[in-house]
Amino acid sequence: MKSEVFILAIESSCDDTSAAVLKNQTVLSNVIATQKVHEEFGGVVPELASRAHQKNIIPVVDAALKKANISVKQLNGIAFTKGPGLSGSLHVGVSFAKGLSMNLGVPLIDVNHMQAHILAHLIDNNNYEIPVEFPMLCLTVSGGHTQLVLVHSPNKFEVVGQTLDDAAGEAFDKIAKTIGLPYPGGPLIDKLANEGNPKAFKFPISSMKNLDYSFSGLKTSVLYFLQKEVQKNPNFIAENKADLCASVQYTIIETLLLKLKKAIATYKPNCIALAGGVSANSALRAAITQLGEELNLPSYIPSFEYCTDNAAMIGISGYYKFLNNDFCGLEVTAQPRLKV
Question: Which domains does the chain have, with CATH numbers?
Answer without folding.
Answer: 6-123+306-323 (3.30.420.40), 132-301 (3.30.420.40)
